[in-house]
Description:
By secondary structure, the chain is α/β, with parallel strands linked by helices. The chain is built from seven helices and four strands; from the N terminus they run βαβααβαβααα. The model has no long low-confidence stretch (mean pLDDT 90).
Amino acid sequence: MKFILIFGPQAVGKMTVGQELAKLTDLKNFHNHMTIDLVSPFFDYSTKEAKRLVSLFRNEIFEEVSKSDLYGMIFTYVWAFDLQSDWEYINHVVSIFESKGAAVYFVELEAELDERLERNKSPHRLEHKPKKRDIEWSEKN
């Protein structure tokens, strides 16, 4: 089992890199907006209800995948290094996979802000991330 965490700022290309890596391997791609977009018709992501549900869904998926016979998974995440809670979250996720003997890999992506602002409007991104279709809101976040 392999667990690959692709992290970096918004619109840097995490989902796209994950999708391409999934095409080349048997890894399953789990980009962070899959759960955010699932919950957003019910609760705005800024609410405690949405954050709780997103966390629950992700955690259950991590637990089940880590116990499965799948080759592994890719997860994308905007990791705020200045927040202790993000470090604790990443350590928790990694521990789920490591406790089952998985190899864990970290991949950090970077791009200039101007490039990310362009990517934020790309048809591919908007197709896969409905929440980002409000460009004005997305560029503020």
